[in-house]
Amino acid sequence: MPRALRSILANLPYIGLLALALALPSLLGNAYYIQVAIFIGIYIILVLSLNLLNGYIGLLSIGHAAFYGIGAYASAKLMMEAGLPFILAMPAAGLISAAFGYLIAKPTLKLSGIYLTLATLGFNMILFLVLQSWMSFTNGPLGIMGIPQPSLFGREISSRPQYYYLILALVLLTLFSMQRLLNCRFGRALLAIREDQLAAEAMGIHAARYKIQAFVLAAFYAGIAGSFYAHFVKFISPDSFYIYESFILLAMLALGGQGNLVGPMVGAAVLVLIPELFRFLQEYRMIVYGSVLIVMMLVRRQGLLGGKNYSLRLTWFDPPAEKKYYRGDKFLPEE
Amino acid sequence: MLELTDIDAYYGPIQALKNVSLTVNRGEIVSLLGGNACGKSTTMKTILGLVKPRRGRITFEGQRIDRRPPSVVVKAGISPVLEARRLFPYLTVLENLRMGAYTRRDKKGIEQDIERMYELFPVVRERYRQPASTLSGGEQQMVAMARALMARPKLLIMDEPSMGLSPLYVEKVFEIIETVNRKEGVAILLVEQNANMALSIATRGYVLQTGEIVLKDTAENLLSNPLMQKAYLGVA
């Protein structure tokens, strides 16, 4: 079989999924359904970024919505007041969020375990209070209205399908960049630190530095999601970035399973869909939401897809490693 | 090569090391002996930079390494075999070895070294595809040594390699330590409770008691020292 054909076959499941994702707006048709799909996209980026901390390096952050909020406010402000075009405002919002990630990580990563967790919670609460009280800058609890819609390369993004394709592109970028990052030395170092920090340090891995890098990266991705959210909903208020939001992200991660890239996506999709699917139950639908989480923790604590490593390897970018045989292999059955 | 001068270390208000000075020369096996809670592990942690000394200095090949983070110390050429081995339990033996070479970027050299480790430790070759947690304690000790050697250290610090092993494996481990020292030319600082075994392969030894070095001599002299025989060697 020629190489090109073989690599197409190997990538077939991804090609299928991508085709499905591309066709989704026309399959769904209804604007409301597309909106749900867009929210799934936002949450996929958020949960994937939280997964870097909770799943890969083993830092329990419970205030992740803070970085989502910083991204949203930064992006809105940059476009409305500094007059930046969307294509600059979005990465800038990510960078601002990452800078805050650095400022928080630097002093708090000396803390360990539950203390660090409490520090992330504290940061989320402080951010909420600042957004709530700094009337002149954030307009307080009234929030910011009339956030402009994004335009890319001279084209306004205004319809639901256009937003959908934008978030799809962002999700794919997130996945692709994370996959590349986690499959090299950086990813190995994170895993080693999660498994046994002392042993990791004995290998010459600078644990503190990697923790800060992971924190900054997670904040960056969350900031990008925040920016998209601001320009999609066109209205932001402190309530959207309260601790409640952080806990939803944690629930999604727990449901989907952490430590790989597939679990968080499934978790985000399921927990966005449940309240929508059970809308007919009105307020009672949150009972379904809660029950799903409780049952999951009882029957499958590691999450739907946790505890495994799913490779999202595209053979075009990562040619499968050549099989290497060591001398001892002669006596072992082939893989 | 490694030199500790007048080290004082504390855990909070409690002094763990008092005025500890010791040296390890190129190619030597030096054993650091002592009972429980006498500061053996603290000495090791201080060398690695996990505990910051309050006083004194540590130099390695002329370069000061006290107050540097462990990653810098490891890169300078000191590789530890931690107490209780501390392998990555879910990674395979081979992945553990690769993790040991984390600071290196020479792919070819790493592959060659893996091959060398297979030769030095036949167990590692037999088990290379198994998760590390499925190995016995003695086998894990071999993997831990191989992992530490993957960093191509100039000095190997071993914390209680005989702990929790069957008598048969204890002997095997010490044999291998000797081989590694001879074949690889790596200096070894052996932190041990098993004084008899440790001195039988060492050139020199230090004895720690409540954080202070009370005896230092060649291994032969220590083995015949009446004080040592009574306190640590179990000779009546």
Structure description:
The complex is a heterodimer of chains A (335) and B (236). Chain A has helices spanning 3-10, 12-28, 31-57, 65-80, 86-108, 114-133, 135-138, 160-182, 185-195, 197-202, 207-233, 243-256, 262-277, 285-299; strands at residues 151-152, 155-156. By secondary structure, chain A is mostly helical. Chain A has a domain at 45-243. In chain A, helix 3 (31-57) runs antiparallel to helix 11 and helix 4 runs parallel beside helix 6. The longest helix of chain A has 27 residues, at 31-57. Chain A is globular. Chain A starts with a helix and ends in a 36-residue tail after the last helix. Chain B has 236 residues and is an alpha/beta fold. Chain B folds into two domains: 2-77 and 153-231, P-loop containing nucleotide triphosphate hydrolases (Rossmann fold, 3-Layer(aba) Sandwich), CATH 3.40.50; 88-151, no CATH class. Chain B contains ten helices and ten strands. Chain B has helices at 40-48, 70-76, 93-100, 107-120, 122-126, 137-149, 167-184, 195-201, 219-224, 226-231, and strands at residues 2-11, 14-24, 29-33, 55-60, 63-64, 78-81, 155-159, 187-192, 204-209, 212-218. In chain B, the strands form two sheets. Chain B has a six-stranded mixed β-sheet with strand order 6-7-8-3-9-10, with helices on both faces. Chain B has a four-stranded antiparallel β-sheet with strand order 2-1-4-5, with helices on one face. In chain B, a hairpin with a 2-residue loop joins strand 4 (55-60) and strand 5 (63-64). Chain B is globular. The termini of chain B are far apart. Classes of the chains: A mainly alpha (335), B alpha/beta (236).
